[in-house]
Amino acid sequence: MRKIYILLSMLIGISSLSAQQLQFSDSAQVSLLTCSPGEEIYAKFGHTGIRVNDLKNNIDVVFNYGLFSFETKNFYIKFIKGETDYQLGVTSTQAFLAEYIERNSFVWEQKLDLNSLDRKILINSLLINYEPQNRIYRYNFVFDNCATRPRDKILSSNSGIVKLKTSNEPRTFRNWVGVYTGNESWLTFGIDLVFGKPADENASAMVSMFLPEVLMSEFENIYIVTQESGFSEKKLVSEKKVLVEAEYKEVDASNSLIKPFYVFSVLLILSAILTFIETKKRTYYRLFDSTLLLITGLAGILIFYLMFFSAHPLVKNNLNILWLNPLNIFAAIVIWIKPWKFGLTIYKIASIVLLLVSLVLFALSYQSFNYAIFPLIILLLMRYLSYIFNSNRVSIKLKKTNKD
């Protein structure tokens, strides 16, 4: 959920620490650290770490499950396939907080009320996980990330019964992600295109903790039931405080009109004007449709690849493929080959049927679609119909010209 180059990590001391050097006393305090989102895409969802502060042995470090490097071979291909590897690192708390001071992000600390045995089990588990052969793990945006790992380590190390009294309303994965990417942003539009029907399922209170701030919020509502002196119940978090306070930044509203819906609406209007000119002049602007087919076809190939070959859990069964047809990339070439005109006409008719099905599913909310796709679907419908209508008119015009 955030970019940390391994080289930078080495410079601030992450790789110089070994599990053997980290010897904690029984009085060490364990805390959950939560960092607010940043402006970069990789920082949009915030970050989580586990702090172990041992005043007796003068050790104050953060166990950080968010380390990865863009320098990894074929990083972007692996990311698309869902085969990105992250690793656990350990750095001083001072160095960890310095990054968020520079980024102007909040950092909250929640001290955990653990008995000596549970605290020892948790710390030993972290140290074992920090051994070189155990550090690397296969990252999963929802089920195995920098927030879920600390959650699982803390809760599994507890000898009591974990009781969650959630206060959050149920939300889908898509809605949770939208909280952090914005309702009308280009990032949200892109995510909505690649997310399939699984993203519209409600995330349970436990699963929703894949988001760091949600994890922090839910930890406030976790109680531990123990059998010490009979059954007793205590809060997991004993104290919460701010370690880094961010300065308020005024939101720039200058780009409010450069939103997907407005951009595609303008494109629809321009396309309508172009179609009108075609009809009046009895001509056909092949280059425009070829470019449109090429772009939608490339987007469709990406969706197809994610659906069938990616390990990401939320990109399966994506109905956006109905209007972003991967075969459009071939149609973009065929449109220039006159002998294949009849076949292309049949393809356009079939595409119109798929677009109409998309609109029906859009209306029925069978899958959540980003509303910015509506002008795009109308645009495609208009151009497909225009091709069928105007290309025939052009053919008739040419035949009459040849006869004369």
Task: Describe, in plain words, how this protein is organized in 3D.
It is a single chain. With 404 residues, the chain is an alpha+beta fold. It has two domains: 6-168 and 205-244, endopeptidase fold (from Nostoc punctiforme) (Alpha-Beta Complex), CATH 3.90.1720; 260-403, no CATH class. It is 45% helix and 16% strand. It has 13 helices and twelve strands. It has helices at residues 6-11, 75-81, 93-103, 116-129, 148-156, 173-181, 186-194, 212-219, 260-281, 286-309, 328-334, 341-364, 373-403; strands spanning 29-35, 47-54, 59-67, 85-92, 107-112, 136-138, 161-164, 171-172, 202-203, 222-226, 232-235, 237-244. The strands form three sheets. A seven-stranded antiparallel sheet has the order 6-4-3-2-1-5-12. A hairpin with a 4-residue loop joins β2 (47-54) and β3. α10 packs antiparallel against α11 and α12 packs antiparallel against α13 (373-403). The longest helix has 31 residues, at 373-403. It is elongated. 35% of the residues are buried. Residues 1-16 and 394-404 have low confidence and may be disordered.
Task: For the structure shown, list the relevant keywords.
alpha+beta, endopeptidase fold (from Nostoc punctiforme), 2 domains, seven-stranded antiparallel beta sheet, three-stranded antiparallel beta sheet, 45% helix, 16% strand, disordered N terminus, disordered C terminus
